[in-house]
Fold:
Amino acid sequence: MMNRILGVACLLILFASAAAQESRGPVKVTIKDGKTVIGEPILPLDPNPRIVPQYSGPNAFGLSVDGKRITCSPQGSIWSSIMVDGNIRDPFTDFNTPQPPKNPDPLPPTPAGKKRLGAQSAWTHAGIHVTQIIEVVPSKPASNQPGQKRMLDTCRIRFILENKDKVAHKVAFKTGIDILINNNDGALYASPTTQPGKVLNGVRLEGKTLPDYIWVLERPDLTNPGFVATMTFKHSKGENPNKVVLANLSVVANFQVWDVPPQPAGDSACALFWDEKELKPGQKRELVWGYGGGISTSPDNEGRVSVGLSGSFEPGKLFTIAAHVEDPTPDQALSLELPAGMERVEGSVIQPVAQPSESGDSVVLWKARVVRPGDYEIRVRSSTGSVQSKEIKIEPAN
Structure:
């Protein structure tokens, strides 16, 4: 009897070993995106807008925050110029028609139906179609404190340039801002991250000297600055300005000259530049900057997670789960949810999202392995409330 039991046991071991060897052979893998679940961000949003854009036509607007002006005119102290093949377009000439200029149209809702605050307008010069989009967005919170809310106190300003001509054109773009903070028409600036402790006046910022953002001070005293506005030059999506010149209105408002020399402010003004690039027929550029009460964010990207998979899905071998996070929110964390039949090998179940790289993204990694073929769903859950998933079908290859 004992020999018989041992014989059966040996056969079971052999069968199990054969099955294991078979499961570790080549497999056919099908991966598709699962359903995305969007939740509330880690910090609640104060729904009351604190910034007010006003317009004096399709190409000029002004901004006020909490009833305080951050441009000289509440309706028309920000304007844009375009240079096509070396020819400069006066930012106001095309709109000086006998009929009153048409104000921008309200922004349409997002594809998901979410309401957006702001307006958009369009114009064309020398075959280049320009769409201007001014959107009220939350500013980036300084920290994640209990009871803190994100404030709708800044604007993300975008320009979509599209070549609708039949030939290529070299296109450069510039935005001028007539600065005023509260009642000070000679407001100056500060760059707390690159030139701490200094008040900036009549300087050119480009290359390594161009920070992600600058402060615009009601008073040129960093210990008592009064109201402080923030001008944002870095977003993760779109082309950021290549150069910013802090000067005065007399040189910034000279529409016949493209370059602006840095000059000490009297009547304070500044200019933002996007370098000349060739646009072939049908090509587009998206330019972006922000201005308001805080650092501008990209609401469609804020804390957004995308998941990628790589490696081998043969049972017993390792594959990598990489979660890319755009514009991480304060204290954002990700957690990995694996189904039965998969095992986590490296990386904690819950991981904090690190400070972003130069591209504005952060990456969180895990390593895992497949135990046996089957149908699986891998989920990455963000503390912002969103869930990204991948559906994987693993079957022996024929």
Q: What stands out?
A: Residues 1-23, 37-42, 96-100 have pLDDT under 50 and may be disordered.
